[in-house]
Amino acid sequence: MNLLRTSGLLCLLLSVTAADPPTCVLAHGGKAALPIVVAPSASPAVRASAQELAAMLTRLGAGGITVEDGNGSRGIVIGRPVDFPALSKQITFTKDPFKREDYVLHSRADGVWLLGASDLAVSHAVWDLLHRLGVRQYFPGATWEVVPPAGDLRIAVDVTEHPAFAARRIWYNWGLWGYNDEPYRQWCVRNRMAQGFALESGHAYEAIIAANRAAFDAHPEYLALVGGERKLRGDVKFCIANPGLRALVVEHALKHLRAHPQADSISLDPSDGDQWCECDECKKFPTIADRVVTLANAVGDAIDRSENSDLGDRRIGMYAYNRHTGPPTIRVHPRIIASATTAFIGGGLTHDQVLAGWQKQGATMGVYDYLSVVDWDWNLPHGGKGGRLLQIAADLPRYHQLGARFYDAESGDCWGPCGLGYWLTSRMVWDLKECARTEALTEDFLTHAFPGAIEPMRAFYQLINFDGQRRSSGDLLGRMYRHLDAARRATTDVAVRRRIDDLVLYTRHVELYTATADGRGSRDDVVRHDWRMRTSMMVHSYGLWCRLLNQQAALDPKHPLKDSTPFSETEISGFISNGITAYQPVDPGFTQVIFSTTLVPAAEQLKFNTVPAGRFPDAPQDQQRWWLWLPQAGGLDAEVTVHKRWANRVPKQSMWAAASVHPDPVAVDESQKPDGQPRKLVLRSPHIGLHRLETLDGGDHTVITWPKIPLTIESGIDTPGVTSHMRGGWTLSFYVPKGTKLVGGWASRIANWAPPVSGRLLDGGGNVALDFTGRGDGWFTVPVPVGQDGKLWTFVDTQGQRLLMTVPPYLARSGEELLLPVEVVESDAR
Ligand SMILES: [Zn+2]
Question: Ligand 1 centre from 223 Cα, in Å?
Fold first, then answer.
């Protein structure tokens, strides 16, 4: 016992000593206390980093600071350790290609060492030191640079830094647009966003053909056989079963790597889209991923051969994406780095399963994420993942834990909705400990970027980045304008005002875009505004122009909607005052509760009350999404009738198994015709338990006659297709978990032409809790009477959708059929 105590005390003493490095004074009384020192052998890049450091330290109060050549015995020493053999303590970095960005910050009484494994690492060390001295570049551009007022500078630091991900990138789809090139580059440098290891993963097959055109002309059999023809076409693929083709690609890869000695990797990712070879030999590959990997494995084996040892440690990049989401059934060569996309995953497979499955076969993994895609989110608040900060903070540690070591995020120049998310991402992909500090990092941002206006700006960012509540666009705009108005009134600081004004311009984009989407506004107004505000970098103007007009218009310097007149103070104030008048905040009266999608039958454990007999919507159209529970292997035997309305496409029923690790549905039926004739619907599955079934018709009515199995419609605020599924009259029940105080949600007609909302909501005792007749679209809230929780409630004779937000969003015809989130069943069965 005593011994333990003593050693515990010893550890404590040691850790206090280790955590207490000497303090170095960098500046005093407006003057630099030490010079910046580089080695005589320093590279131009290190000298440039030294000059950047000198310029920033001067602004911070180190007047007269110099950059000198020296041996590093004192001063702010920057460079690589090998350049300073005289240092008292030797620091070494390994040659590991994934540790090129490692650096050391080490303070002493007479200096600080900023020593890195590479020029890039030295730059990181410089910006880390400046970060510790309070310098911030939250978003690109001068407006979002925060430099503390000049004063005395001191630092006590002793850290060795290594990034959690070996390559970290937030990049703009559609690309940069001139004015943002330099601000973007600078933001990346200052926030350590870099590719220490250059991983190439882009679509590669077209380039391979272009570089070897004569060989492909001589051997048309190298191309994929599609529809009986082997020819060059869009999204062209190879006949990978052909050994001659594989040998050609291996030769090409070796030649490419020899010609590009600086390239860390070569991509062997297929061309986009479909068009995979239909020849008998290729069809023998169990999956598309097996084809892609077979070709890449051949290149990996070739790099390993002794006659190619001059190539060194090179890797092969690709995506795990679309048809080759995988995982492959064969071993993956250890040189292969596969980046698993977080969207376009074949249905039924989670991103986690993709990462785990590829690694099990030997791949090194990266993640290809989507923080903003302009035509998915239109730069609206929490539209893209870049605007959902808690999701970023939750996902990054999970990706890393699942083995991902590369992070690449498709994004846009939209720092209005995503800026705080991008900055947090830059902190988190370097150091995963930052993922637990979302709140602290947000406070860092608010206190430094908005001194004097912190509270209203906290409310603004809470609204656009953290709020999970469904809101009407009018409610959202009413709140955004009010918070910005309060923030503007709270400060006279010009720099702070400029940041708030940028966000006013952003809010105006949201206003104009939502007006257009609702049919009230004009697309021209949106693109005209987005062009005028482009240098604020608050919205991705280039992408918006390309998507709302077209790329030709975006690139036309004389386009009539391009007017670069700066926004005047009067205009900006006008946006706010008009916005406050036009849009009123609405209080829905409840907070959303999130439930899992791991569904299980619930009747046996929860002993439900009896409810009125239910019926599904009688005119579902386009898309329907069902959750079903198959009690035994074999699949689903049902009957389906497709009643013709528009016949825009062939009806299709697809079924995914929750237990399957393959991306494709376990079964698909495309044999149905929109002719009103009942037909057998047989969807085979080797799995028991939870399945998801989706029907897609061409604007017709697909009606399924179901066997007696648990069967539930999802009706949450974000459920895909729910609007088309809930067409026609219906009566369905849902579960109110024990302890629920309010049943809250959104009720609306499913389209402008549809009947208005109607129907009654009955509580667990059969009493009318709410009559929807005569109510317009909007929120509904019903207090749960004593004893009516832990019960089934029922929407009877209903028209329109009911999106449930405080209870599990699952509707069924009876308690026997209802599927519920497993955590609800486990908790309420107790
Ligand atoms: Zn083939």
Answer: 8
The reported pLDDT for the residue numbered 693 is: 95
Task: Judge if 663 and 737 occupy the same domain.
Answer: no
Q: Are residues 523 and 644 in the same domain?
A: no
**Alpha-carbon span 757 to 110, nearest angstrom:** 76
What's the Cα-to-Cα distance from 537 to each of 146, 159, 812, rounded to whole Å? 17, 34, 47
Q: How far apart are CA 371 and CA 410, in angstroms?
A: 6
Domain that holds residue 790: 590-612+715-830
Rounded CA-CA distance 61/67 in Å is 16
- Cα(83) to centroid(ligand 1), Å: 55
Q: How far is ligand 1, taken at its centre, from the CA of residue 135, in Å?
A: 57
Are residue 479 and residue 522 in the same domain, yes or no? yes
CA 247 to ligand 1 centroid distance, Å? 15
Q: What is the dihedral of CA 392, 396, 399, 402, to 10 degrees?
A: -130
CA 318 / ligand 1 centre spacing (Å): 20
List for the chain the helix, strand, coil content (%; round to 5): 35, 20, 40
Among 561, 582, 603, residue at a domain's last position = 582
**Which region, left, alpha or beta, applies to residue 635 given φ > 0 means left and ψ of -120 to 50 means alpha?**
left
Residues 575 and 604 in one domain: no
For residues 677 and 731, membership in a common domain is answered with no
Report the separation in Å between the CA atom of 273 and the middle of ligand 1, taken as the mean of its atom positions. 17
Q: Are 204 and 273 in contact (CB under 8 A)?
A: no
Distance in Å, CA 253 to ligand 1 centroid: 20
Q: Provide the domain count of the chain.
A: 4
CATH code, domain carrying 80: 3.30.379.10
pLDDT recorded at residue 589: 84
**How does pLDDT run across 244-284, given as a tens digit for each residue?**
999 999 999 999 999 999 999 999 999 988 899 999 999 99
Task: Tell how far the Cα of 788 is from the centroid of ligand 1, in angstroms.
Answer: 63
- Going from the Cα of 279 to the center of ligand 1, the distance in angstroms, rounded, reads 4
Residue 277 CA to ligand 1 center (angstroms) comes to: 5
The answer to whether the CB of 552 falls within 8 A of the CB of 585 is: no
pLDDT tens-digit map of 152-198:
999 999 999 999 999 999 999 999 999 999 999 999 999 999 989 99
Distance of CA 619 from the midpoint of ligand 1 (Å): 45
Q: How far is the CA of 107 from the centre of ligand 1 (A)?
A: 62
Same domain, 519 and 573: yes
Which tens digit of pLDDT belongs to each residue from 736-783? 999 999 999 999 888 767 788 999 999 999 999 999 998 877 889 999
Q: Cα of 222 to ligand 1 centre, how many Å?
A: 8
Give pLDDT, residue 154. 97
Query: Which among 763, 769, 757, 767 has a CA at the least distance from the CA of 798?
Result: 757
Measured CA to CA, the distance from residue 47 to residue 65 in angstroms comes to 14
Same domain, residue pair 21 and 41: yes
Distance separating alpha carbons of residues 281 and 239, to the nearest angstrom? 9
Boundary of a domain, candidates 663, 690, 708: 708
Residue 359 to residue 345: CA distance in whole angstroms? 17
Q: Is residue 508 part of a domain?
A: yes
- pLDDT at position 9 over 50: no
Distance 684 CA to ligand 1 centre (A): 28
Please give the distance, rounded to the nearest whole angstrom, from the Cα atom of residue 361 to the centre of ligand 1. Answer: 24
Half-sphere exposure of 80 (CA within 13 A, CB side): 19
**Long-range CB pairs of 226-231, under 8 A, 24+ apart, other chains included:** 226/275, 226/276, 226/277, 226/278, 227/278
Strand partners, 367: 340, 407
795/826 same-domain check = yes
Tell me the per-residue pLDDT of 76-103, one tens digit each, with 9 for 90 and over. Answer: 999 999 999 988 788 899 988 999 999 9
Q: Which two tokens stand for residue 192?
A: 């350590």
pLDDT at 443: 98
